[in-house]
Amino acid sequence: QRFSCIGTCRRIVVLTPCCLFAVARCLGCSAPLQAPAVQTKSKKTLAKPGVKNVVVVDGVRTPFLLSGTTYADLMPHDLARTALQGLLNRTNIPREVVDYIVYGTVIQEVKTSNVAREAALGAGFSDKTPAHTVTMACISSNQAMTTAVGLIASGQCEVVVAGGVEFMSDVPIRHSRKMRKTMLSLNKAKSLGQRLSVISRIRPDYFAPELPAVAEFSTSETMGHSADRLAAAFSVSRVDQDDYALRSHTLAKKAQDAGFLSDVVAYKVPGKSTVDKDNGIRPSSKEQMAKLKPAFIKPYGTVTAANSSFLTDGASAVLIMSEDKALALGYKPKAYLRPTYATPKVLERAGLTLADIDVFEFHEAFAGQILANLTAMESDWFAQNYMGRKTKVGAPPLEKFNTWGGSLSLGHPFGATGCRLVMAAAHRMKQEGGQYGLVAACAAGGQGHAMIVEAYPQ
Predict the structure, then answer these.
(1) Which of 264, 241, 197 is nearest to 419 (CA)?
(2) Where's the Thiolase N-terminal domain (predicted)?
(3) Phi-psi group of 259: left, alpha or beta (phi > 0 → left; psi -120 to 50 → alpha; rest → beta)
(4) Exposure letters 307-317 (e unless 16+ CB within 10 A, then b)
(5) Confidence label for 174 from pLDDT (cuts 50, 70 and 90)
(6) What is the pLDDT of residues 1-41, one digit of tens each?
(7) Per the residue annotation, which of 5, 19, 138, 157 is the catalytic one?
(8) Angle between helices 140-153 and 417-432 (to 10 degrees)
(9) % the chain with pLDDT above 70
């Protein structure tokens, strides 16, 4: 078993390759979309003497859509290009000012393996602007942002665009390895006799395709199976999972209707209609959700399509700069970025506690994984036996937790979610008067990422 989750540290038990925190408290009431009172007392800043401040100026994303819907005929770089163009339009940043572009993605289209480069060229950036693509499962865009921070902090760059894209409507399906080897041999054959000899070795089973699966190579276990086992290990019931998923969809719908999801930019899909909102937000009822059968461990599993994040197409982009450069260009940044790995570590390094955090934005892979991890965070026994801590970390209060919905309802394009989390935290802090946000996400392979987002002074 692997032990890691952004919510605690790398050693939290992770039976799901895409895990997070869990909610170990009553889920019957929905958190308000807006804090009852704007915080007036300013807290200390995390700025340090001699350390360059890095800020996020703004960020956008395409609408996140269920795979196989309006984006179905596109390619990944189309979505990434659209996000980049949306960022340029929103910020009016001159293309030549951008020093570097880095994008995250998970399922790579072989024709555009460096999707950052293809998207950048398509968006009109100079071929002299470097661009590279990073993959780190569900925290790929988190890593893209961390890379941007590193480039700026080290003095290599002043202005970096980071983002992510995922396109699940069209994923690579390969021939079997036997067929691939045969086809490569056929390509090398020089004479007709050699070609016929190679062809004669082909057998019917060679034509069986290799279908993709959201599974870890090292364990062959899918995320859903891992989530089911994690929920069982922490005694998270099907009812609790459905309740949490319903909360996510209900809050997301309220946020969407209220216009809070302002990072979404409209996209006129070629040959189709303009999309301007996420289409996976679907508040249901407990009764309807209870009718669904287990999706992975049958017939006794508790993870279903209703309490899992869905396959999603989408892209995101954020403009990151040194604070000095942003001010020199006349921008008013949204927030400071203070990245590191693992929630207890990021809090300890920043000298903060959970009580100091005003806004929590965590990736919701599965409701069961959320609930199980927060249960672990509330356990002294777990902290002592698995985390090397004397006392529990503590679970975030629900009234501060994902109050505009999360990945269960808004969608989860693997490579793009991290940027959405950061912008949600920045916008929530501005609206609610908070100073600190904690962004966290998990990734396949037992990895995780956490980041403190500090509101920029108004």
Answers:
(1) 264
(2) 54-324
(3) left
(4) bbbbbbbbbbb
(5) very high
(6) 333 333 333 333 333 333 333 333 333 333 333 333 344 34
(7) 138
(8) 70
(9) 90
| Reported confidence tier of residue 182, pLDDT bands at 50, 70, 90 | very high
pLDDT tens for residues 413-424? 999 999 999 999
- Residue 235, sorted as left (phi over 0), alpha (psi -120 to 50) or beta, turns out to be left
Which helix (H) or strand (E) segment is 46 a member of?
Answer: none
**Encoded amino acid at 379, one letter:** S
* Integer angstrom CA distances of residue 303 from 220, 245, 282, 290, 447: 18, 11, 18, 11, 22
- Omega prior to 299 cis, within 30 of 0: yes
Q: Are strands 436-443 and 359-362 parallel, antiparallel or unpaired?
A: parallel
| Half-sphere exposure in the Cβ direction for 252 (13 Å, CA) | 24
CA distances to 37, 119, 128, 162, 338 from 76, rounded to whole Å, are 42, 9, 22, 16, 29
- What one-character DSSP code corresponds to residue 62? P
8-state DSSP, 158: S
Nearest Cα neighbor of 143 from 101, 113, 108, 102 is 102
339 SS3 class: strand
Q: Which of 9, 18, 19, 442 is catalytic?
A: 442
9 catalytic residue (yes or no)? no
Look up residue 115 and give its amino acid: V
Q: Cα separation of 72 and 313, whole Å?
A: 9
Q: Is 138 marked active-site? A: yes
User: Which tokens sit at 199?
Assistant: 């062809």
What does the alpha-carbon distance between residue 379 and residue 361 come to, in Å, rounded to a whole number?
21
Name the residue among 280, 256, 274, 276 with its Cα closest to residue 265. Answer: 276
